[in-house]
Amino acid sequence: MPADWDIWAVSDWVTKPGEWRNEVMEEGPEELSTGSRKRERKKRRQARETGFKCSALLCSEPRPRCCRWYHIVAMVVYAVLILNKAGGLIFQRDFNPGLQKLTSNDYLILAGTFHGVHAITSQISPTNETGASGLEVLESENFVMRCFQTLTGTKFLVFAEPRQPNLDVVVRRVYELYSDYVMKNPFYQIEMPIRSEGFERHLSAYIKPHQ
């Protein structure tokens, strides 16, 4: 490879925790147009927004032949809850067995309390073009909670460690799995508890390997 060629990392999606992606695109200066550089910068920006980090800040070991390596950040998710539009708990799953367990009654109280707080915050929040959305993020010293509410009022809550990045990406992925494996089930009754093996299996496959 000529010494004056640039090496650019291909910002592909990484699905395994701890996996390094070192696919490179080798282009000479004469082939690398301004449009190509802009597209590559866009790829890197999108990669950072979806959970990638540059290894130059994470790893002291030099990486030969490549100046751009990306590493997917391990997720530490504690629990996932889904609430219907009335505030009823229709799904709950823990992903960290080492933490103190809550009873079913505790989760029901948590769901009802959050539903009330969310309704209050949506009333007192300044409105914008899309309307007030209510409480979306709750942070503490021990955890962070991210809420995503659909247009039909269903709420998805994800509890994770305080330093968990891109939690909005995680909660939206949970919503996508819900749409694919729950809402497309012709036997599922809206607003009722979720009992879908496919949804639980794919949810565990998405979160547990990254723990």
From TrEMBL:
Cellular-component GO terms for this entry: endoplasmic reticulum; Golgi apparatus; TRAPP complex
GO BP: endoplasmic reticulum to Golgi vesicle-mediated transport
InterPro entries cross-referenced by the UniProt entry: Longin-like_dom_sf, TRAPPC
Compartments, as annotated in UniProt: Endoplasmic reticulum; Golgi apparatus, cis-Golgi network; Golgi apparatus
Residue ranges, annotated region (Disordered): 24-45
SUPFAM superfamilies (UniProt xref): SNARE-like (SSF64356)
Family: Belongs to the TRAPP small subunits family. TRAPPC4 subfamily.
Full protein name: Trafficking protein particle complex subunit
Protein source organism: Orbilia brochopaga
